[in-house]
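A reminder before we start the practical. When you read a complex entry, don't treat the lines as separate problems. The point of joint prediction is that each chain is placed relative to the others, so the output describes one connected object in space. Small molecules and nucleic acid strands, if listed, are placed in the same frame. In the example below there are two entries. Take a minute to note the order of the lines before looking further.
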Amino acid sequence: MEKETEKANSITVYIRRFDPEKDSAPRQQQYTLQVEKGMTVLDGLHMIKQTQDPTINFRFSCRMGVCGSCGMMINGVPALSCNTQILDVTTTALTLAPLPNFKLIKDLVADLVPMFGVLKGLQLHIRRNDVEEMEKPTYEYYQTPHQLEEFLQFTYCIKCGCCMAACPTMATDREYPGPAPLAQAYRYNADSRDDARDARGDLVAASHGIFSCHYAGECSNVCPKGVDPARAIQLMKKDLVLSYFGLAKHKCAHLHKKPDKSTYKAKIEAPPHTV
Amino acid sequence: MKETAYWTWFIIAGIVILVIAGLHMVVMHLPMFGVFNPESGAVTDWGNVAFRSQNQFLAFTYIILLGAVLYHGFYGLRTIVFELGPKKSFQDGFTVILWIVGLVLFGIGTYAAIAAKALETAL
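Here is the predicted structure of the whole assembly.
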């Protein structure tokens, strides 16, 4: 029985092909692939490239769902090809296409640079009003586990662009920043060490900004890292509305001077040495 | 901040519509709550219509409902049009036009609600 399930399975793979120097529009090319248990979509693409068609273009790097390079449409759903096993998706036909809502570079390679531009524009780093302290820190910013929990899950974003490809607002509104940048904006706004909530809020609440989100929620459904960008966007909307009414409660973390080691005394004494 | 204000009032208008349109439904379709339909018979009988037209509370709620519906609807229309990707100048102009049309319609509706009080003399 075990051998039966591990037997190679022949499937048809349809790959969207496009060469801007040759093609006027994307076309679909068909391949046959012998699939074994455990084979990922990226493995399958490598197999096709090595044995059938060396001209196929696709992007990858880490092969273990960390770098976010290999995002593509797998049977109509945005996902990472390196952590999607073929037999989990299909036993007959596999359709691969580049991520929509991005400019197409070649074959399965979408241009993610505009997304990185938006991420950069939203000033996604910890900013404080006390610039001198920020540049040459002399203090520590204490953060409780609860404060960390406020934004921790949003730090797992690998900027693969799957959420951007799934977003219906991105499909219709080209000026919309997209779920990934907005979720990252919330990640820093929710960080108790950050002091730039108002400035970042003004950026995301501009025309075609965060309020263009219709809460379809597909971004959260497709995220390969389990991040919930839709939740981040709704929480950010709530914060913006509370700020509009002057009810926002965010306070920047207090500075705590580093303990002087000469006078520092631990609250719990270490047990005496036994040897 | 401007878009935050627009969206916030859009949500508030939605809640207002839910409450006041709910009240409207109760008044118009559940005649057993006879506070606003004192005459026996259907809610569309002349006596009941005239009574409701003279009621200041109902006139006030209908004016609020009108404002909420206009704002909520026009914000939705603006969002749909903006998603089509028009130029910034068109967006600004379209917003101004919606404000003007909305205020004119609100003025006409408010006048109608207030003028309905004249039914008192027609009785």
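Discuss with your neighbour: The two ends of chain B are 50 Å apart (CA to CA). What might explain this?
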